[in-house]
Design brief:
Strand content: 5-15%
Structural class: mainly alpha
Strand order of the largest sheet: 1-3-2
Radius of gyration: 35 Å
Number of strands: 3
Largest sheet: 3 strands, antiparallel
Number of domains: 3
Length: 299
């Protein structure tokens, strides 16, 4: 019988509790996994490898010794040396092969320092980033991008409107703040951040973004600023004074008005909020103009 199987079977028969089992695995790792039958360890080292409180290590080790899994002898430097019990060693058939493991003494537990970033759907790295020379140019660029996105009726198309002045590190931090939100929620939070930055209302961009993300998670995000931007940035059709044939221009205007009305209705339905008075008045003026043009065309 192999020594590893004999040792595991003996541990299973010992009815170990959780702390004792973790301690057993540490001794198993430090001996068999390194091709040794014994290893000298301090209580602190066992606690670090097992993740158990130091004051609970000694009783667990004593139980492993009392059940005949390991033998403990005092050590000058490392408190005790723990050796696989002699009856178990007697069951070894030939040599055992040590597994490829980290260098002895290295920490193998993942403590979370360099965990891979999760759900990085909020990161967008631009390969055509242009460096601007003045903050004024950057502000104008952000404002233009904001208006362009608003004119698309807030539809998320796979690219998030991070401020153009942000580098990859800042975008990565923002992605962590937005982590867990839907792409649409993250999109709206960044639009609101860009709007506040252009108004000069924000001194800590990431802190403000954290506040927006928190509101989005609780479904209390105020999107009224985006709705106003949508209304203000909507294109306006211009009628030309053509006395010969005004019908094509009138039809074009009718289609533009209809699109404006449908866009406003869809926007507020999607946002799930009532239409504010200013937008409602603008919609009413579109309806009046639409009806007047229809009458001019004969119904």
């Amino acid at each position: 019988m192999s020594l590893a199987i004999a040792l595991i079977d003996a541990a299973l028969g010992a009815d170990l509790n959780k702390n004792e089992l973790k301690t057993f695995l540490v001794l198993f790792r430090q001996t068999l996994c390194y091709g040794k039958t014994s290893d000298a360890l301090t209580f602190k080292r066992v606690a670090k490898l097992s993740g158990i409180r130091k004051d609970r290590i000694k009783p667990a080790l004593q139980r492993l010794v009392s059940t005949g899994l390991f033998e403990a002898t005092p050590h000058k430097l490392y408190e005790h040396a723990y050796r696989i019990a002699a009856p178990l060693l007697a069951q070894l058939d030939g040599d055992f092969v040590a597994l490829p493991v980290p260098k002895n003494g290295d920490t193998f537990r993942n403590l979370g320092e360099n965990l891979p970033e999760k759900r990085v759907h909020t990161i967008h790295t631009s390969t055509n980033k242009t460096t601007t020379t003045t903050s004024e140019t950057k502000t104008k660029s952000d404002q233009s991008s904001l208006q362009a996105v608003c004119s698309s009726d807030f539809n998320f198309v796979g690219e998030l409107p991070y401020p153009s002045a942000w580098d990859h590190t800042q975008r990565s931090k923002a992605a962590q703040v937005l982590d867990g939100l839907s792409p649409q929620q993250a999109h709206d939070c960044l639009l609101l951040l860009a709007h506040s930055l252009t108004k000069g209302k924000v001194s800590n961009a990431l802190g403000y973004l954290h506040t927006l993300a928190k509101a989005a998670r609780s479904n209390t995000l105020d999107r009224s600023a985006l709705i106003a931007l949508k209304a203000n940035s909507a294109p306006r059709a211009i009628l030309s004074a053509s006395s010969t044939n005004p019908i094509p221009n009138t039809l074009q205007r009718l289609n533009a008005i209809k699109a404006e009305i449908n866009g406003l209705d869809a926007l507020f339905n999607r946002a799930g909020i009532p239409m504010d008075s200013a937008t409602a008045a603008k919609r009413a003026s579109y309806v009046d103009e639409y009806n007047a043009l229809q009458q001019g065309l004969g119904g």
